[in-house]
Design a protein that fits this description.
The complex is a heterodimer of chains A (329) and B (342).
Chain A: H1 3-13, H2 17-54, H3 56-62, H4 65-68, E1 72-73, E2 78-79, H5 82-113, H6 116-131, H7 134-160, H8 180-204, H9 208-216, H10 221-250, H11 253-258, H12 276-283, H13 290-328
Antiparallel strand pairs in A: 1-2
Chain B: H1 2-27, E1 30-35, H2 40-54, E2 57-62, H3 65-73, E3 79-82, H4 88-94, E4 96-110, E5 121-122, H5 124-132, H6 141-146, E6 158-162, H7 167-179, H8 181-186, E7 199-201, H9 203-213, E8 217-222, H10 223-228, E9 232-233, E10 235-237, E11 243-244, H11 248-256, E12 282-290, H12 296-312, H13 314-319, H14 327-340
The chains are: A mainly alpha (329), B alpha/beta (342).
Chain lengths: 329, 342
């Protein structure tokens, strides 16, 4: 890092005004872009800290119990975050289980299989999906998808998967259509455009020589994708997946409409639940005691933590993968 | 040089703009209020008519009762509106006064195949047991025993409650606490409670949408939402042991049973009212104002508006399924203004 030093030494030698001006502009530019980056860090920190500050009363009163208490009782002023945390994680997990394979398929189709004339319209359609406001997904979910789930999917799951041992408890419940499964599916559809457009872009960056060599030695399309394209783009693909996951964790409006908004802890995916974002959106305006308000802000802080932990795990996984890949080659 | 000219022009425009806005302010006072969503339709109607007559505008934000109380306590609005009364000692501590403006009612709505509005009959204890999750099916003997002649399906009951805090919820659970000891000890009352079962919809419209969607569900909404959405509401047994239909008449009967002068600041919750024909889950909307407001002029304008509304706005209230206040109560309210609000 000798650059500033060299620059300073060079400053004396700058004779023409042009050189001096360039130097100043360069410094101003450097300062401007650094400020942009710092701005992100500062606002992130400020948001997290202000929520922690707002939630200090709840965290102080309930302590660690706030994390695993499933009670959410405004009358007796007893709050715990377990139900919203559980609902947030489960719905996001269901969403990713749906979104990742489908997005992979879309990206694969658009980069490898689809005829050239079809790629642009289908790609545009996928991106259009990303532009739909989440409230529209919520209303579609409530008025179209919830009755469909309630009449066709839920009863079938309850009848056929409900009696099974172990996983059966996941699928027992009344056919009300609302619930964690419905919310997860709607979230999955919302996340697909984000994940698939990242995947598509990075799949395009694979050098054609690599793919063509593989095809030339007789690989099938699947083998080319699995052994050439994916390893080449792995970190970017995982990055795209976690972009989608981040969105699924924080989604509010659509989830509020279809999740059922009940502070009940149930193993069944067909039962209503609650998520952190939905709880805050529902209850913030009418939180009438300071401990209630504080609990909601503490929930907001927990969403930060949950997202951060999930992203950190992703980073570690990525580093491990890179390490292993380094060893095998 | 150029900058200073720009600056001068800007300030000149700003001054003209300020003068203009001051002029309009002087011409017609703008009164701001916030709170109860339940009262929003009638307040909007009243303010439109009042604006035509006097030129004064009421700017009402329907942000919910709890938020309305918070806003008036922060003195950001001229009046707050709430579906639940503030306690007299709380009002005194904050230097506030309150009075009722309109009466409405909360009604149970159901989604049972073939059930017509008003056909199903329920009692307070049955509703409490349903909302406690103790009665799980529509053909439960407790429900069947009061519904001879009505075909009840062998269907699971899905409870729909509010997911947000709400004055409607307050009146609903206040009633359940009065009729069920178990509800009172286990759940209690408040603008949002720890529901033992069911799903939560946001706002009256959210509950109405869920009840319409989910077969075998029961929820609670303001009467206007039930009639506008053509939902099947239920008749409820009152303290006089008669099954009453939710109508303006039965809400009014409940309001007339209350001795409004008995408590300071009209602190009365009119659920489970006695007397013939009284609807058991009637609710009052209260307006909350400062006893000694900072902006006395605006406060006076607001009182003039409510005076007009109570005296001349009652027909409009009835058209929107609200119940006008009994005449004696209107008199009491106007006396309270003279005494409490300066």
């Amino acid at each position: 890092m000798t650059t500033p030093h060299v620059l300073q030494a060079g400053m004396a030698g700058l004779r023409s005004s042009r050189e001096r001006r360039d130097f100043l502009y360069d410094r101003a530019f450097r300062f401007a872009v650094t400020a942009c980056a710092v701005f992100v860090l500062v606002s992130l920190l400020a948001a997290a800290l202000s929520m922690l500050w707002g939630g200090r009363e709840a965290l102080g009163t309930f302590g660690w119990r706030f994390l695993w208490s499933s009670s959410w009782d405004a009358v007796h002023k007893d709050f715990g975050a377990l139900v919203p945390i559980y609902g947030t994680l489960v719905t996001a997990l269901i969403a990713m289980l749906i979104a990742v394979p489908v997005s992979f398929g879309i990206a694969l189709f658009l980069t490898e299989i689809a005829p050239i004339w079809l790629r642009t319209p289908v790609g545009a359609a996928v991106e259009l999906l990303a532009g739909i406001p989440s409230i529209i997904y919520g209303m579609w979910g409530l008025f179209i998808f919830v009755p469909f789930m309630g009449e066709h999917i839920d009863p079938w799951l309850d009848e056929h998967l409900g009696p099974l041992p172990v996983i059966g408890s996941l699928f027992q419940g009344p056919p009300i259509g609302l619930g964690m499964l419905t919310a997860g599916i709607v979230l999955g559809i919302m996340v697909i455009p984000f994940v698939s457009s990242v995947m598509r872009e990075v799949f395009k960056t694979v050098p054609p020589q690599l793919k063509e060599s593989a095809y030339a030695v007789g690989n099938t399309t699947w083998e080319v994708v699995w052994d050439i394209v994916l390893p080449y783009t792995r970190s970017a693909v995982i990055g795209g997946v976690f972009l989608g996951l981040g969105r699924a964790l924080g989604e509010t409006m659509a989830v509020t409409f279809v999740l059922g908004n009940a502070h009940l802890l149930s193993p069944s995916l067909l039962q209503p639940g609650n998520s952190i974002a939905a709880t805050i959106a529902n209850e913030f305006t009418e939180a009438d005691s300071s401990i209630y308000l504080s609990s909601l802000l503490a929930l907001g802080f927990l969403l930060f933590i949950v997202t951060f932990v999930v992203l950190a795990i992703a980073r570690i996984m990525l580093a491990r993968l890179a390490l292993r890949a380094g060893k095998t080659t | 040089m150029r900058l200073s000219i720009l600056f001068k022009t800007a300030t000149r425009y700003a001054a003209v703009g300020a003068a203009l806005s001051l002029a309009t302010l002087g011409h017609a006072a703008e009164i701001t209020g916030a709170g109860s969503t339940f009262v929003n339709p009638i307040l909007s109607k009243w303010s439109a008519t009042y604006n035509e007559k006097t030129g004064n505008r009421i700017n009402y934000q329907s942000i919910g009762s709890g938020a309305g109380i918070a806003q008036i306590k922060a003195a950001t609005v001229t009046f707050g509106a709430s579906d639940l009364p503030m306690k007299p000692e709380e009002l005194q501590a904050a230097g506030l006064a309150q009075f009722p403006v309109v009466i409405g009612g909360v009604v149970p709505v159901v989604n049972i195949e073939g059930a017509k509005p008003g056909e199903l009959k329920l009692t307070g204890p049955i509703i409490a047991d349903i909302f406690l999750g103790k009665i799980e099916k529509w053909n439960d003997t407790a429900i069947a025993s009061v519904n001879s002649g009505v075909k009840l399906p062998d269907q699971k009951i899905t409870v729909v409650h509010r997911s947000d805090g709400s004055g409607t919820t307050f009146n609903w659970v206040n009633y359940l606490s009065k009729v069920s000891g178990e509800w009172k000890t286990k759940i209690g009352e408040g603008t949002s409670v720890n529901w033992p079962t069911g799903v939560g919809g946001k706002g009256n419209e959210g509950v109405a949408a869920y009840v319409n969607q989910i077969k075998g569900s029961i929820g609670y909404v303001e009467l206007a939402y039930a009639t506008q959405n053509k939902m099947a509401y239920a008749a409820v047994k009152n303290r006089n042991n008669e099954f009453v239909q939710p109508t303006a008449k039965s809400f009014q009967a409940a309001a007339e049973q209350v001795n409004w002068a008995a408590e300071p600041d009209f602190y009365q919750i009119i659920t489970d009212a006695p007397g013939a024909g009284s609807w058991p889950i009637a609710a009052t909307v209260f307006v909350i104002m400062y006893q000694q407001p900072k902006d006395a002029e605006r406060s006076k304008e607001a009182l003039a508006f409510f005076k007009w509304a109570l005296e001349h706005g009652q027909a409009e209230a009835q058209a929107l399924d609200y119940v006008p206040l009994p005449g004696a109560l209107v008199k009491l309210i106007q006396d309270s203004w003279a005494k409490n609000i300066h």
